[in-house]
Amino acid sequence: MTTPVCTSASAAAAPARQTLCEPRLRPGGGNTAYPSFASYVRARQSALLRAARSLTADPCDAEDLLQTALAKTYVAWERIEDQRALDGYVRRALLNTRTSQWRKRRVDEFACDELPEPRHAPGGEDPAERQVLHDAMWRAVTKLPARQRAMVVLRYYEDLSEAQTAEVLGVSVGTVKSAVSRALGKLREDPELTLAR
Question: What whole-number distance in Å separates Cα of residue 40 and Cα of residue 11?
């Protein structure tokens, strides 16, 4: 029995090659290959490769998947009665092969006495509560007037000093201090932040 062998690792990328795979001949000159199989592969390789690529993200894996499906098709070539259904047969072989590969890569989970990840963040806070507070804080900051908002963002989100903030905005350090003080007062009075704390 002969088996198909890929003539190039990236045959789809080499337009000069017309076939994705060609059957290997037995030593001694006995050619038992199916010429109809070879012509089928030559005619349909682009469409079949597209089908394989739709099943896997990696183009190299898609070529390997197609090679495996074509090998299975080659073995069953004599048993396929309806030659018009060849595409469906190969596509089914692609899908079954991909499913088998996926099942083999399954990762088993094992029960253990200790949880592998900590229950809460290192600070003892619940990450969900921290996110709720972060979102409430950001909504409160967006309610501030534009100038105060810019100063608060530069001082506390960008971590600039008062002098750097003043330089970026082109104002005096005293202006930055008073505007940030007023902004922080408004943030302390924001009802949404009071509820979130």
Answer: 16
Give me the average pLDDT of each 10-residue run along the chain (197 residues): 44 42 42 75 90 86 91 88 84 89 69 66 70 86 90 88 90 93 90 70
Query: 152: Cβ–Cβ under 8 A, 6 or more apart, which residues?
Result: 141, 144, 180, 183, 184, 187
Return d(Cα 88, Cα 92) in angstroms, integer. Answer: 6
Distances, alpha carbon 175 to alpha carbons 96, 147, 153, 169, in Å: 70, 11, 15, 10
Total length of the chain: 197
8 A C-beta contact, residue 141 and residue 152: yes
Q: What local confidence, expressed as pLDDT, does residue 175 receive?
A: 93
Whole-angstrom CA distances from 90 to 13, 35, 79, 150 are: 21, 17, 13, 62
DSSP 3-state assignment of 155?
helix
